[in-house]
Write the structure tokens for this entry.
Amino acid sequence: MDHDEFRTRLSAYNDGELPADLMKRISLHLESCSSCRKEIEELSRIDCLVRDLPQFDVSEQFASQVSALIMPVADSHPISLASYARRGFAEFLELAEVIFEMLPGHEHRKTAVLDEFSDFPPLSLSNAYFQVIGR
Amino acid sequence: MINNPPKSLKGSFSEPDTDFRLIKAIGEGDSDAFETLIRRYQKPVVSFVYKYLGDRFGAEDLAQEVFLRVYRSASNFEPRGRASTWIFKIAYNLSMNEIVRRRRFCLVTDIDREAGSEPAAPSSIEGEELKEELMDSIRRLPEKQRAALLLKVNEGLSYSEIGNVLDVSVASVESLLFRARENLRKILKENSEN
């Protein structure tokens, strides 16, 4: 293997990714070749520069935001149960209200009579409508 | 580092838990395990996507999509190699799709520069200029060379793992990295001469 061939393997040598025997041969070559030693230094410098590039600052809420996106799927069962319970309770309240209104002495809870809304202007369409409906 | 535990762990998962256990739990619908995995990998994944696409604003959105893909695929995950390789493969594939999409719609622009965003915590003007120049040089590398370089230098993946992520042989990874470093050196040299 000549100098040029060694040179093309220096990147992998610097990463420690070559077979042991080739690593050894390149190490020996580096002892006598200043140009390849310089190359190795340059490769290490480039790697250092890339490694030292500023890291992207992930927002504090990133994990919880992403996690929240899957929550309706992941926890659909418990949410459905709670929802059913709330709906059932609301229907129970409605039924209780109907029964309560049927009890004697609660007539005042009935809807207001139409006469309370009869103050439309005399020549308005609303008044004409009211005259027809209210009779 | 990839396998560093997150600063605060939610739920019952902590440092000794392996990624495989987390992924298995995610496959069974455990949302605490999912959040733990996100905290463990959010920084490397977002950084990789950011440096690969060169787009600060799209990086978090795409990383979000990566983790949602992890969630959806967790039940089919086969524990071969490291979990990080699997996650980076998803990140790489989605980033590639994004590049193709942007090309199709002519959206390949330097969004950061257009928006005039400031790099974080500048140490010196000269240092900042070098970093900007380097980011620009990395963006100008061919896509596979760029991915191989970032996965090797920033994430510490082995050649075999990079080959798995990029779907190429180990010999191709060696060649990609050699050419990436050569190109980067040439670009930096040209920039310093101009």
